Amino acid sequence: MSTIALIGLDSVGASTALSLIRREIQATILLVDINTELQDAQADVVIITEGMKPTPGGDIYEHVYFKTTVLKSILKEMMPINPNTVILVVANPVDLLTTLAQDITRLPKERVIGVGTCLDTLRLQEEVVGWPTSRGKDGVSIEERLDAEEFTQGRMKAIVAGEEGTPLEVGAVAAGIAVAVLEDKKTVWTVSHRRGNNRCCYSWPVVVGREGLVREVEVKVREGEKWTFEKGVMKLGIMWEHYKVKEFHKVKGHDKVKEAEGP
Question: Among its keywords, does the record have Isomerase (predicted)?
Fold first, then answer.
């Protein structure tokens, strides 16, 4: 029987476990918290939700560094990892943590994925976006799209501030992706993963199955949308490089302290 290891039993982890149980999947669910020593990393799917809860205020890079420290601690205890395992990162910032997870585990890129924008995609499917059609072929101006984007981001921040996150929704999505892997459903999800030679993972529609990422889905985008998308990818790459530089200096500083103290 297949096994799902769920690491992190906060609200998102608990919601993910509940969603998996309700689906009545034919698999053993192993529940692990950061305070419990990991005994075995031979699960078919490992879902990491530890550090999912948003941390408003403060410096974003300090938050990133804290959460990457937690993730590195988790993955270190999991070594060696079964090469057939699929890792699903749910914790935020999901793109950066998914990138880190692949770098640490050295698993094939198709076997390390993040929940990415799956929840946003599902929400969009349940709504009707009524872009004006009286603007010619392009339909909507860049200004209107940016206004809509700003409004949507503002609403999401309000939801997170009021509810301290959206654990039930995120848990349902994580469970859905895990089931797609275990049952080799080959369904489309907009998961975060490393594409080509990009420095950082980001979301793109892919077919998900038993080996994780089966294949990417071809998507046609307009020039304006392509520019906005590439700008976002570039920002993620800059954040990833910034993190690596900061990590390097912290490690070097630690080494200097040890040298000064002696063996």
Answer: no
What residue spans define the domains of the chain?
2-260
Q: Can you tell me whether residue 89 is helix, strand or coil? A: strand
Q: Given this model, what pLDDT does residue 77 score?
A: 85
pLDDT of residue 44: 94
SS3 114: strand
**Sign of the four-CA dihedral 163, 145, 89, 21:** positive
How many residues comprise the chain? 263
Tens of pLDDT along 160-185?
555 555 788 899 999 999 999 999 99
- Higher pLDDT: 88 or 241? It is 88
Both structure tokens of 226: 């392509």
92 is annotated as contributing to ligand binding: yes
Q: Tell me, what's the pLDDT at 9?
A: 80
Type of residue numbered 127: E
CATH of domain 2-260: 3.40.50.720
Residue 41 annotated in ligand binding: no
Check whether 43 is labelled as a binding-site residue: no
Q: Count of alpha carbons within 13 Å of 100, Cβ hemisphere only?
A: 30
Give the angle 62-66-69 at the CA atoms, nearest 5°.
140
Q: How confident is the model at residue 90 (pLDDT cuts 50, 70, 90)?
A: very high
Residue pair 232/202 in contact by the 8 Å Cβ criterion? yes
